[in-house]
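Q: For a teaching session next week I want to show students how multiple molecules come together into a single three-dimensional assembly. I've collected the sequence lines for a complex. Could you give me the predicted structure tokens for the whole thing so I can convert them for display?
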Amino acid sequence: QVQLHQSGPRLVKPSQSLSLTCAISGDSVSSNSAAWNWIRQSPSRGLEWLGRTYYRSKWYNDYAISVKGRITVNPDTSRNEFSLQLNSVTPEDTAVYYCARDSGHTADYWGQGTLVTVSS
Amino acid sequence: DVVMTQSPLSLPVTLGQPASISCRSSQSLVHSDGNTYLTWFQQRPGQSPRRLIYKVSNRDSGVPDRFTGSGSGTDFTLKITRVEAEDVGVYYCMQSTHWPHYTFGQGTKLEIK
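A: Of course. Below is the structure for the complete assembly, covering every listed component.
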């Protein structure tokens, strides 16, 4: 059974960086058949895919155009987890952030969600 | 970008009655590998989305058989044969044919009349 457990600060100041980590159990971040995603949810934007990392003989990343230039998703193979960093945040980045596994070309397992508030 | 449009956005249903949610995509969701990557999620209040149906009509393990997915191309439907109290929540469709981007519908809020 795959489980994803998120951690990270819930309050971030404007212009600073948001950082979250997703710890994986029951699968490997280096799996050749999975991809590891960050998705956020807010009343104004609904569910919005942000980016992913995956391994297919080498590491790849894909990012949404809406956050490209501000986002980094990194794997940590030693801890079997992956992370999200979103720079230069504004109040519009306030949302519930989820990590999720993609297997078979669709998201199947999700983390518990983290409400991150951007406020001074 | 592919746009996913759900209807209705609000769905009041009497217990034991059927319910139906429509999801339309702005482009065909048939992938070059022949599969159609259309997924349905249920999100109960205060919880993470839970996958119910993948590749249009494949029910996930543990999902009651009163949930059925159907459709093709750009037109898809989630049906609940007899609504139960535990079905209250918001239902989302999502496309993942056009990788790497997932695109979600706006959500349909199911409530008991």
